[in-house]
Amino acid sequence: MDEEQVVVVNINQDYCSRCLICYSLCPYKAINRDAETGKVEIDIQKCQVCGICYSACPVFAIEIAYYSYDTLLDYVKCMLDKVKADTIVFMCRGNSPSTCEVKEILENQGLNVENYIPIRLPCSGRIPAEFIFKVLDLGVKKILSIQCDDEFCRFKEGTKINTRRLLLGKKVLEDLGFPSNAVTVVKYSRKAVYFTEECVGCDKCVFICPYSAIEAEPFATPKILTEHCMGCGACALVCPHHAIQVKGFEFEETLKRYMNSAVKLKAEGKSPVILVFACQWSEFPSLDNPESVLFKRNAVTLEVPCFKALDPVHVANALECGFDGVMAVVCSAEDCKLQEGRDTAERNMEVLKDFLKKKGLLERFELFESSPRSISNFGKRLDEFVKKISSMPPMNQIQLVKKEV
After folding, report:
1. What is the pLDDT of residue 104?
2. Do 24 and 122 share a structural domain?
3. Cα gap 147→123, rounded to integer Å
4. Shared-domain flag, residues 298 and 376
5. Does one domain contain both 38 and 19?
6. What does DSSP say about strands 183-187 and 220-224: parallel, antiparallel, or unpaired?
7. Which domain does 290 fall in, by range?
8. Sign of the Cα pseudo-torsion (41, 46, 51, 52, in order)
9. Are residues 165 and 93 in the same domain?
10. Is 73:84 a contact under the CB 8 Å cutoff?
11. Overall number of domains in the chain
């Protein structure tokens, strides 16, 4: 284990009071307790960097690399100076893709918010109660927390923990004279959206869904059981007519985003141009702050809700429309937040690699597993990939040669 992995989440033993709150809350049993001394330590290989232990520690003895209390506080202070907004909207990564249709989600809940400060987090359960009180003290009037439904939470207990925490905090605030709407919890989970008029009744989605969330009907189109849908996107990938899709990750919209990006970067003379498909849970800083890693490498990133939603068609098409290389970043099987059906995704990748090999493009595609436990792993792999692609002719030159032949 390298040093960078060790320091992602760490317990400062000088501050730790051995209260065992973190030990009791960790949904992954990644915190070990010495029975004799009561000392607690984090098993970094089991840790999913959800931040639930960090937010629960009463003495801030847990140090974390991402979205720390001080970092979030500095962000809010900076945004308060830049924008005229008195509302903060917390969004879980699972219910907020990079396209962030926040206003639409809130309007469906009867909430109209024009200006707000967005804070996107891996899990709502990583917000300490102290942070809520502090930002209200800074001048924030309203705090809205868009949380996943309890059964949808990618970190098992994060939503439940934060809901209880916010309800207790809300009661304290009301006793202190704050209005009842100072803190509002909104439940929202990203589900598959079904366009029945496009469906031909092939039932492929029924067979592929790993959560039994789609039922075949004898004389009608399949029925989606939304209470079971986890929004993994496996059904959308196999639908031949795009009759079923995950909102925020629609096929045509995804196609437009990366094709427009390719045209723009090529017009600016950038080379090589890289497209990165990244599972939302495999990498944190580069997805939330792409300027830090991606933009300076002429890389465009598109998030996918899960490895199962990584469409091989997009990979092949991206190379055809001008990208010089395509990288896919996914979680390992052990870290996958939606493990059911992963074998389907792996088979899809084997078919894709076989296709690319036949087209002479296999060297331009790379799939690798990553985790937020490794702080700079993604950046290093991207640098290596860019260096490899730089040694190859640009894709537009190859396409011109093929046309001339």
Report:
1. 85
2. no
3. 8
4. yes
5. yes
6. unpaired
7. 251-404
8. negative
9. yes
10. no
11. 4
